[in-house]
Amino acid sequence: MYQTMIDILKQELVPALGCTEPIALAYASAKAREVLGEMPDELYVECSGNIIKNAKSVIVPRTKNLKGIEAAAIVGMLGGNPDKKLEVLTTVTEDNIEEAKRLLERKYCKTSLLDTQEKLHIIVHMKKGEHSALVELVKTHTGIIKIEKDDKVIFIDEVTEEAINAVDYNVLNIADILNFAENVEITEIKPILVRQIEYNTKIAKEGLYHTYGVNVGAALIDIYGDDVKIRAKAMPAAGSDARMNGCELPVIINSGSGNQGMTVSLPVIEFGNMLNVDENKLLRALCISNLIAIYQKYQIGRLSAYCGAVSAAAGAGAGIAYLYGGKEEEITQTLVNTLANVSGIVCDGAKSSCAAKIASAVDAAIVATMISLRGKGFVAGDGIVKDTIQKTIDGVVTLAKEGMKETDEVILKIMMNEG
Most-buried pick from 8, 294, 340, 414 (CB within 10 A)? Predict the structure, then answer.
């Protein structure tokens, strides 16, 4: 179990440049171009509804202002390096961007909604004369399951949950996460978490001091001041401001999401700085916040109608409670208090307003933490709250996966001007 926890952190806390859904599109497109070996005459992309939802309104990194599925696929095709995976667009040049603009004007890339049960599913088709390439990606943002060249399968991988999660996420539970965080040899997690602190703080400051989107993070501090409770909301919101609006700095993600990676870490860092805790204490708190966020989200799935900022903020609240000396009882109650409050926030795609949702979720987590540290909290029978944390989280998972299934479809219809 000890090694599994470390493996989960290594697998989940990785760098990504830009919103991960357009990046997944760019990655699949870059791979298809590599397989084809030449510039295609035709580019056709099929996407699941959640990919469309999350790629529709966000700026593709390195492009300054290009948005959408077509832009992500074209830019990935022209200048992406598939070997860099979630940092696929770090090799894009100004010439690539100018060519992408010309191709977009020509409506070069065709797209369609993919008929699939998967939330995360992309198929990229390319043709050049008699030659063709196909790349299919499913379940994770780099999870290529099939590659074809000239209609012949050259790579196929039957993707199962077990194959994707080479480590067993089912070991995750609150008691064992806390035991691991308290006892792990700090040198084994330090490189992973120090990188998260460095990357996510840097992009948050970029969003705080420069113009991106509507600057939710900067507005919070301008309006409410520099109190730690405001900074804890403003920093991840500012990081999202920057990330959703074309900033070229990478972030360390959590559960496949940069916004969740910032939400789960930056509030903990702010409270750690305010409380003047030593580095080891902060790293153990971040270990708790990250693993508790993953514990919730891996059961829900990477994409859904349930806003991932909620599970990430709940994790951050747990980390903050730990910094204040909270034990299992207070940390568990923080999770319950957060989920009882804001589990209804919906995901309507990646875009500027994600920053405001992050701020709302973190605010709820801070309130939840302070209530729990006073020995108070919501109890079984209060709405969706059950008599154990596992039952409460199971209920939230059911809400997200089953209760919000139709919600997800309606959100997509509204976004596509069909509802």
Answer: 294
Tell me if 292 sits within 8 A of 314, measured CB to CB: yes
DSSP code for 101: H
Most confident of 52-61, 94-103, 110-119, 396-405: 94-103
Answer yes or no: are the C-beta atoms of 70 and 163 closer than 8 Å: no
> If you ran DSSP here, which 8-state letter would residue 168 be given?
-
Q: Which ranges of 156-227 would DSSP assign to H, the alpha helix?
A: 161-164, 174-183, 186-209, 216-224
What does the pLDDT read at residue 14?
94
Cα–Cα distance between 50 and 134 in angstroms, integer?
Answer: 21
Q: Where in the chain is the domain with CATH 3.30.1330?
A: 17-163
pLDDT band at residue 161 under the 50/70/90 scheme: very low
* CATH code that applies to domain 17-163: 3.30.1330
pLDDT of 419 > 80? The answer is no
- Element holding 265 (H helix, E strand): helix 258-275
Q: What is the pLDDT of residue 231?
A: 98
Out of 3.90.320, 1.10.287, 1.10.3470, 1.10.4100, which CATH number does the structure's domain 169-415 have?
1.10.4100
What is the mean predicted confidence (pLDDT) over 358-386? 97
Confidence of residue 230 (pLDDT cuts 50, 70, 90): very high
Are residues 291 and 175 in contact, defined by beta-carbon separation less than 8 angstroms?
no
The CA-CA-CA angle for residues 392, 395, 398, to 5°, reads: 155
Q: Which residue has the tokens 């005459």?
A: 41
Torsion angle, alpha carbons of 305, 5, 390, 161, to 10: 50
Average pLDDT over residues 18-28: 92
Phi, psi of 136 (to 5 degrees): -115, 130
Q: What is the pLDDT of residue 413?
A: 86
Distance CA 415, CA 417 (A): 5
What global pTM score does this model have?
A: 0.91
Tell me if 291 sits within 8 A of 5, measured CB to CB: yes
Q: Residue 177 carries which side chain, given as an amino acid letter?
A: I
Every domain of the chain with CATH number 1.10.4100 lies at 169-415
Residue 23 tokens read as 């990046």
306 three-state secondary structure: strand
Sequential DSSP letters for 231-296: HHHHHHHHHHHHHHTT----EE-BTTBHHHHHHHHHHHHHHHHHHT--HHHHHHHHHHHHHHHHHH
Calpha distance 331→318 (Å, rounded): 5
